[in-house]
Every structure is written in C-alpha cells, then in structure tokens.
Amino acid sequence: MRFDELNLEDSVLDGLYAMNFQEMTPVQEMSIPPILEGKDIIACAQTGTGKTAAYVLPVINELSKGAYPEDAINAVIMAPTRELAQQIDQQVEGFSYYLPVSAVAVYGGTDGIAYAQQERGMLMGTDIVIATPGRLIAHMNMGSVDLSRVSFFILDEADRMLDMGFYEDILQIYRKLPGNCQIIMFSATMPPKIRTLAASIMKDPQEVEIAIAKPPESIIQTAYICYEAQKMRILEKHFKESSPKRVLLFSSSKQKVKELAAAFKRMNINAAEMHSDLEQSNREQVMKDFRNGHVDVLVATDVVSRGIDINDISIVINYDTPKDPEDYVHRIGRTARGTDGSGLAITFVSEKEQGAFRAMETFLNKEIYKIPIDPSLGEAPPYEPEKHKQSKGRFRKKGKESNERTGGKGRKPNGKQSKRPFKKPGRNS
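Structure (tokenized):
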C-alpha cells in the first residue's frame, strides 16, 4: 500500500516523497489508519520495521492542521536511551521539513546550558517533546514541563524501558496527562508486564502485531563453544588471520567493555568503547567515528543493540551470550544492512552460557553452526546444554545501565540541546 492512499496532508506527502518514501511497511499500513482515527494502539514490532514512521507520520499530520495550541506541548515521545531519542528527533525533523511543526529532544549527558535551553523550549511550547523518562521527570520536578494539554503520548521500545526500570517513571508522567490524551505504544516483545502497563494507561486499545522477525537468512550465524578463558585467545587468532573492519562486539557489562577495548588497543587494533559511563559528547563522537570508518572495532553494551541504524557492519560478535533470544535477534540484526544484505554473527558460548544458547536455538528453530576451536588453543568443553538449563520463567533477571536511568529522586538530571529553534516555523520557513 502506498502512502498517497492514506488520508495524509499534502505537505506530509511532500516530505515523504522528498525522502523517497512510497510504499508502506506492514507495521505502517496497520498502525497509521487507527492512529489517524484517534484510537489508542499497542503495536508489537521489532526495530528495522519502520515503526518510527508508523507513529510519527500520523502525529505530525494531525499537528500540521493547526488545531492544537501553539503555546503547549502537544505530543510526547518516550524512548529508553539517549541514542534512540536522538535518532527519533532526526526522523521527526526529516518528516516535518515542510510542516509548521516544532520539536525538542530531551536526554542526558549534556551541560547546564543545554538543560536551560531545553527548559526554555518546553516553557515556550513546542509541538513534540522526545525524551528519556528520567530527564523528563527531572524537568517536571523543576516545574518547567506542563503536560496538561498533551494530545499524543507515545512509548517507543516500551519493553526496553520496563527492562531498564522505568515502569514507575512512565506512570508518574502518565498521571500528568489529560484524560483525553491518545496513547500509542510500540514494543518489540509483548511480555505480561507490557500488557499490564497497557491496561493501566490505555483505553480499549487496538492491537497491531507483526510476527516476531527472525534474523535474515543472509546473516551467517556461527558460534564457538569454549571456556571463558579461551574467548580472547580465539578473538586474537581471528583478528590476526583477518584484519578487523566494521566489527561490532557486544559484551554484558560496562566493565568488561572497557577491559576488552583496552585489550584490543594493546593489540594495535583501532577500537573504541560504547557504554553509558561515557559523556554524551563522547558517545556521539564514538558513533560518528564508527559510522565514518575511523573505528574498526566498536565494543559496546546493549545500549546500541536496539533502534540505532548503522550500515555496513560486517561482523557482530557476542562476546557474552545474550540471556534473551530477542536480545540476540536485536544484536545480530545490526549486520546485514549493507548493499549486499550479507553479514556474519559470531557468538561465544562458555559452559555457563550453554543453556541460554540452546534457548536461542529453540527460539529460532535453528541449529547454529559451531566452529571447531583450533587445537593450539586447547580443548573445548563438550556442548551439554541440558546440564546448564536456565531457570524456568523469564530468561533473565533484567538489569540496567547505571547512567541510562537518571532524573528523579536520588538521581542526577540529564539533557540534550535541541538542534532546531523552539519558535514554531512558518509553513514556508
């Protein structure tokens, strides 16, 4: 189905054509019409399916009609991380290029000047606020945010926000919204806690569910069954045989990310680290350097596993086996985005991780090829996942990166400077 078959304003279609958007993805085709009708919706769709446009387009379409107050915040988009908030902000800017719609992004890691500029923008009234929960609550506590006239409240990556401990923060924000606010929720998975949240804040929502995507067949999925101490030795041998380029390596903790990045640098590999302990300016520079090819190996926590578009990644390496199959799909989905659509995923599986790895194979309905370990690196452990089964119920005890959840009681506020003026532009500006 084409976008011009929808009841969208001409100025919205002009922006879409300028960005070469013509055919809708399934999630867009199923989500945009009910949002235009004013219905609450809860949509299950993974990253890479076009979900940002699925909620941004109908919202800016309605705002462009001029029926909403100019001195108020009219829409709030919540995102779990700074990087995703920034990416949404960029897409809003692109889609609203021909529209008199203003936006400001509010997330952490910047200085007091940026905080004051965000505050000024929200006090003056901006159509769309794109924010991480902690930072928005920090502004609310300072009295600089009035949500009493918000017409659209969107939760993107809702499951990720709950995993990071934002449940109460979301409810605190929701309680400040008017009763007639339209609620739109997107989530990559639909666990019971998401349905509980939906029941708490939504009114007879329409459900949109796109089948959970499996990794593209063009991704070659492989694994090493090894001891924990063998992981770095296997990597050293791999990188000596094939010089690393465009490699994204995931690890489970910030401390391990720091140690791995330092080890690669000692090996004269051009590596950089990415985690929430970095200042926002450093995080943005690291991502820019990696995109531009100035960094060969990016070592990261799951802060970049969802919602971040990085093209032409040749290899994704899971130094630690993800505890959730969905996280595995998100991680390796960072590759196979180049022009030829191919990619390689390598997962290291220690003895203790064998149960989680088998759960992934079951979820994918696929046996992942196990690469034999070079005899010079020692004997590998037997693959006996039945001896290392995960406990029943949830795949893991969820955690969060310390600096991602900020703002509120006992937490430091954080923010982002908008790249656009806060005053609403004219239609021809």
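The longest strand covers residues 219-225. The longest helix spans residues 82-95.
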